[in-house]
Amino acid sequence: MAAPVVNKEYLNEIEKARRDLRALIYSKNCAPLMLRLAWHDAATYDAKPKNGVAGGPNGSIRNEEELNRSANFGLNIAVNLCEEVKAKHPKITYADLYQLAGVVAVEITGGPSINFVPGRKDSTQSPADGRVPDAKLGASHLREVFYRMGLSDKDIVVLSGGHTLGRAHQNRSGFDGPWTKEPEKFDNSYFVELLKGESEGLLKLPTDKVLVEDPVFRRYVELYAKCSMLTRRKKIGITSQAVVVDNFTIFTSGN
Questions:
Q1: In this predicted structure, what is the pLDDT of residue 51?
Q2: Do residues 245 and 254 lie in contact, with contact meaning Cβ atoms separated by under 8 Å?
Q3: For 63-104, what is each residue's pLDDT tens digit?
Q4: Which positions ≥6 away from 80 have C-beta within 8 Å?
């Protein structure tokens, strides 16, 4: 599919969609789920695809086969909610819509205001299964997945910080519980809790634990635990467009 023409009309539709998403996410209390949708559509990206399928963020997560993968359980709810906004703004690509939903989810929960850059094209071709990080695995797996996207060790820690928002659900991931004491607030408390070790009532996935066990990852965790993600965006590697890879805005998930 062709990339959208990002003209004045398209930008106006983006702003209208942003307002509609804000109202929708607020009324449905679904910010963590929308952030997870944005991340899972983006995290299939391959900077150097061998089979020609680069992956997201390209809206392909709406494809039934991809949506039904175990890593994406529960995201059908977010996809269906986004259809309400898509119906009002049909010119906007799904790829842009899902990432915009992630932007709004961060903003509405107290995170930074992000200068959204539109222009992503849709794809009906889903990448191979297994590209999204597996929460049960360790540091080498995280590096394999994130390096494939052209990201660094610092990016791994930064994006893992999205777990500050939301909680895991047993029927979706096999894990249950929130990562922080205020799971509806986007801040740096995820990193603070990581350094505390095990805490009653709070979740730490295997992929969370390796962030403090691995000395390279831990250095960044300690840094981000000391400063607010809201006021020190540049210090932790988040630009005004969040983390950008080949003009794609990448977001992490809290679910």
A1: 79
A2: no
A3: 999 999 999 999 999 999 999 999 999 999 999 999 999 999
A4: none
Largest CA distance in the chain: 51
Domains in the chain with CATH codes: 8-130 (1.10.520.10), 139-237 (1.10.420.10)
> Tokens standing for 249?
């805005």
Q: SS3 sequence, 60-112?
A: HHHCHHHHCCHHHCCHHHHHHHHHHHHHHCCCCCHHHHHHHHHHHHHHHCCCC
Helix orientation angle between 206-213 and 153-160, rounded to the nearest 10 degrees: 130
| Amino acid residing at 166 | G
CA dist., res. 59 & res. 158, Å (int) = 23
Q: Is the dihedral of CA 134, 235, 216, 109 positive or negative?
A: negative
Burial 124-163 (b: 16+ CB within 10 A, else e): eebbeeebbbbbeeebebbbebbebbebbbbbbbbbbbbb
- Residue 40 is among the residues annotated as catalytic for this protein: yes
Please give the Cα distance from 143 to 149 (Å, whole number).
10
Look at residue 228 in the predicted model and tell me its pLDDT.
67
Match 């893992």 to its residue by tokens.
Answer: 160
The catalytically annotated residue of 40, 89, 141, 163 is 40
What's the distance, CA 250 to chain centroid?
Answer: 6
Sign of torsion over alpha carbons 49, 52, 57, 60: negative
